[in-house]
């Protein structure tokens, strides 16, 4: 079957992005490189996600958690591209997104047939990515994030998690900085209808800031772009419920439901089957979709 046509029918329902981490060190332990036969496992997980209702599959080859080891573009290409090729060849009924901030990785992914670009640095890490995005005409997710941890702060005992969390006024600051990323994109020639914004839950934000940003997501939606939300299994849930990543499904469900009420268009999740049900139920209430 052919993937969903873009632009998606925003507002008609919540779209589901399933996370496929081709990493040995992802924070919630879902990284497929912990296993043998990575490609076979990725394909199996992708099929399971699509059968459960995923619209988009997001493939990542470098953990983005604070303090994670950086991976070279060559190594990331070696992890991600074989999986992109396999999923494209399989012809799954889902869009293929690649979670990378590196222009070289994204260029290779697009050539291998990927459809979407997911940049956790909102075009601030690799300026060449803006041109790659513009030339490809692919939808581009611009996530809010702040500067990379410097060595001394990384050793503060917080793993760099709160570096950059010194906001003057949280929501307006996040909105302004997202619009700076939009400007970088549009100056490079990315069309506004290809831009999706993401508040960056868990990136340079304290627990309280993550909770407030989620509750005020409607203000970010007010910027006029579709919104992607990624709360899945993150530590703001862990700190609130005092639970490890593998026990954060209910907390994720609450965040997903509130996120949809406040205007999220896409949710990025690990537990696809469960969150599809949460999204369908929330859509039935707030969008009257049955
Ligand atoms: N657009 C967007 N991209 C993201 C987001 C997010 O919230 N929004 N969160 C991530 C962290 O989750 P993941 O499970 O992929 O963890 P990892 O980075 O440790 O692999 C990684 N990528
Ligand atoms: N990449 C990230 C992974 C996890 C978290 C978090 O648990 O808050 C934040 C960022």
Automatic annotation (TrEMBL):
PROSITE patterns xrefs: DHPS_2, PTERIN_BINDING
Associated pathway: Cofactor biosynthesis; tetrahydrofolate biosynthesis; 7,8-dihydrofolate from 2-amino-4-hydroxy-6-hydroxymethyl-7,8-dihydropteridine diphosphate and 4-aminobenzoate: step 1/2
Catalytic activity annotation: (7,8-dihydropterin-6-yl)methyl diphosphate + 4-aminobenzoate = 7,8-dihydropteroate + diphosphate
EC number: 2.5.1.15
Required cofactor names: Mg(2+)
A Gene Ontology BP annotation from the UniProt entry: tetrahydrofolate biosynthetic process
Keywords noted in UniProt: Folate biosynthesis, Magnesium, Metal-binding, Transferase
MF annotations from Gene Ontology: dihydropteroate synthase activity; metal ion binding
Cellular component GO terms held in the UniProt record: cytosol
Gene3D superfamilies to which the protein is assigned, alphabetical: Dihydropteroate synthase-like
InterPro entries, per the entry: DHP_synth-like, DHP_synth_dom, Dihydropteroate_synth-like_sf, Pterin-binding_dom
Domain of life, per lineage: Bacteria
Family: Belongs to the DHPS family.
Protein name, as recorded: Dihydropteroate synthase
